[in-house]
Amino acid sequence: MELLIERGTYSDLDEIEHLYNEVNEALEMGINYPGWKKGVYPIREDAIVGIDNNALFIAKIDNKIVGSIILSHTPEKGYDSAQWQFDGDYSLVYVIHTFVVHPNYTKSGIGTRLMDFAECLGMQNHMKAIRLDVYENNIPAIKLYEQCGYQYIATVDLGLGKYGLDWFRLYEKVL
Question: Is residue 58 helix, strand or coil?
Fold first, then answer.
């Protein structure tokens, strides 16, 4: 299984939106660890913003998108209350957003490969750290991040309580 990771483009939007919908439909039928909701997050507009900012990357197998990740320099509002390991400007930090793997490809290593890609790209672009947030009950994602060497920083409120998502764990990997 050869995995190709490349920058997403506008021509990928329909397939990315389809990926987001399939992920959300699978979450609705099983345990919804991240607390995502179809039509709320992630949606096509999230991918458009990622493409507009040159921050969206897609993972493909046999020319089919099986995962994606957004690497931006924009933290969530709750990040400012944390004591991060790297104390510097966000121009030197990647923030992971909208990290998804197609339900048919979970536990196949694609998530780890996307995280490794983020780290390699960060080092190539002289980033000092990578940060992310994860809903406190998203145990599979927390396990992945910790296995990839991310350090727990704090638990914060990101203002998503109206969706039943009260607390998020912040993680950081210093490069």
Answer: strand
